[in-house]
Amino acid sequence: MSPRYTTLMASLPPLGGLFEAREPAISRLKLQSRLSLLHPHDRRRLDGAIRILSQGLLGDASEAGESSGQRGRGDAPLLEEAERFFREVDHPLLRQLVRHRLDLRTIVAALRRRHRGEVDPPCGQAWGSGPLVATIERHWSEPSLGLAGLFPWIGEAVLLLESNDLIGLERLLFSLIWRELDRLAQGHNFDFEAVVIYLARWSLVERWSNYDATVAAQRFRQLVSAGLGRFTDTLAVCPAR
Amino acid sequence: MNDHLSLLVLGWIGIYAPVALGAIGASIGCTIAGQAAIGAMMEVSSGYGRFVGLSALPSSMSIYGIVVMFILNRSVTPINAGGLFGIGVLSGVAFLVAAIYQGLCCASAIAGSKAKPEIFGLALAPAAIVEGFAVFAFVFALVAAGGIPES
User: pTM of this prediction?
Assistant: First the structure.
């Protein structure tokens, strides 16, 4: 454990719990400014990892590809980025973090495809990454994709997906990542690893708080529509003068 | 002749080692804690003094080293050179390691108490415990030095 980034880590506020904060303890702008304390080499490695980690877990790349004119590309750009990352970066914790995130994304992608009614694994297109792809393709029809022993949460994720509870599913995935970060953070207080873990946590808190804001805006619109609907009904029964 | 000279060199190393190693450790420890203090000052708008004060805590290892050096300081002979070397170098290493880890404890205390000022006192406990171990090394170095012949 090398205390290389003591100043940087001491200058960052505690993030608190994942689902507790209404907004991140530090703004993106301020965080970017603090990260200027990083060594350029570490900054490059960190940026490479963040480009992958910032991808949403529930983002359905196959659908997104169709709407953005990249039909058939699916997850290919992300997977290419991941390949480049694994080729260029040899930092164990960064690789472990990215590997874990890609595994989660691969599992969720398979579950969502199957939920949409795909009876066979995708053929001829890149849809997942790592050693899990072969296992999932072999056990496509099994409820837990043959991974229940390794990832016991898959059963819960399937239930949430079947009940269309995407918020619940995202909550579950965020909790899994947060727990993994807790595990990785052991023994890292003021080193590069600590910075990486802080940033990964900040990214989760930021995404969750934005997500909450979106849900709140949708709910507000629903309430306004409902209220206006009742008002229109009241006007409709008023006798004309 | 060469053996005689080597013994004398070891004796002199033993005399100066506590202060040299203590000073090196104190420099590293104070640097670590000082960097944390600077980081914390970027985040908070008051209470700077206690962060800076806390970051100076590892400097005590340097003082222990000076005291041990004065106790060990005497004419070096082949009879007392081994004792001087053993006590001087080992107590110096103890001060060096204690100072570095105390610096880390202080850095954690600073980082923690900037967000929760009420834990400042408790956050000092790990650094104080490390100080306690260094005091053991210091006191028993003095006790053991009493058994080394003067010449």
Answer: 0.78
Answer yes or no: is A1 within a domain. Answer: no
What is the C-alpha to C-alpha distance for residues A61 and A54, in angstroms, rounded to an integer?
14
Q: What are chain B's domains?
A: 2-145 (1.20.120.610)
Residue B96 main-chain phi, psi, to 5 deg: -60, -50
Q: Where are the alpha helices (DSSP H) in B44-124?
A: 48-55, 60-72, 81-115, 120-123
Q: Do B104 and A11 touch (CB under 8 A)?
A: no
Q: Are A36 and B66 in contact (CB under 8 A)?
A: no
**CA neighbours closer than 13 Å in the CB half-sphere of residue B7:** 13
- The predicted-structure confidence for A150-168, as pLDDT tens digits, reads as follows 899 999 999 999 998 888 8
Dist CA B9 CA A98 (whole Å): 54
Closest approach of chain B CAs to the CA of A124, in angstroms?
51
CB B4 within 8 A of CB B81: no
Contacts of B28 in chain A (CB under 8 A): none
Q: Out of A16-20, A90-94, A149-153, B61-65, which region has the weakest mean confidence (pLDDT)?
A: A16-20
Nearest to A11 among B43, B103, B104 (CB): B43
Give how many domains chain A has, as a whole number: 1
Asked if B119 is an interface residue toward chain A (Cβ–Cβ < 8 A), one would say: no
pLDDT digits (tens, 9 = 90+) for A172-193: 999 999 999 999 988 888 999 9
Among residues A145, A136, A130, A129, which one has the least CA distance to residue A75? A129
Query: Angle A154-162/A92-115 helices, nearest 10 degrees?
Result: 40
* Rounded CA separation B13/B97 (Å): 18
